[in-house]
Amino acid sequence: MPRFWEENEGNVAVQNETREKIDKPRLWKILLHNDNYTTMDFVVMVLITVFHKREWEAIRIMYDVHRKGIGLVGTYTREIAETKVARVTQMAQEAQFPLLCTMEPE
Questions:
Q1: Is residue 101 pLDDT above 60, yes or no?
Q2: Cα distance between residue 52 and residue 100, in whole Å
Q3: What is the three-class DSSP state of 97?
Q4: Which of 14, 24, 45, 68, by CA, is between 20 and 30 Å from 3?
Q5: Bigger pLDDT: 21 or 11?
Q6: Buried b / exposed e across 40-57, counting CB within 10 Å, b at 16+?
């Protein structure tokens, strides 16, 4: 943080601080969408390996996807979200599942 010294009318040095405001990066929600082919076990495995969810949390998210048609996995900065969505898509394609993973601004 830059500091500037100024002399006031009485020739006394006064320290003024200027602070730059740094905006927090925009966050993006990652969503998993239900389909009739991807197994529940595969979804749980993806949530544990890609998103580092605990097993009980992965199961809860998987049931949200199954029951509601969509499940919120988490919120991340854009670059991290893009990387995670790409990884899930790659894993699903390699396993020949049509699992859809998307991201949208929070």
A1: yes
A2: 19
A3: coil
A4: 24
A5: 21
A6: eebbbebbeebbebeeee
Q: Which fold has domain 23-105?
A: Ribosomal Protein L30; Chain: A, (3.30.1390)
The per-residue pLDDT for 6 is 57
Contact 55, 41 (CB under 8 A): no
Considering only CA atoms, which of 54, 79, 91 is closest in space to residue 32? Answer: 91
Closest CA to 81 of 104, 47, 56, 54: 104
User: Integer distance in angstroms from the first to the last C-alpha of the chain?
Assistant: 30
Please give the model's pTM, rounded to 2 decimal places: 0.77
Which amino acid does the sequence have at 95?
Answer: A
| Domain definitions of the chain by residue range | 23-105
Tell me the CA distances in angstroms from 12 to 7, 9, 33, 35, 60, one per residue in order: 5, 7, 66, 72, 64
Residue type, 56: W
Closest by CA to 32, choosing from 82, 79, 80, 70, is: 70
Mean pLDDT (whole number) for 61-83: 97
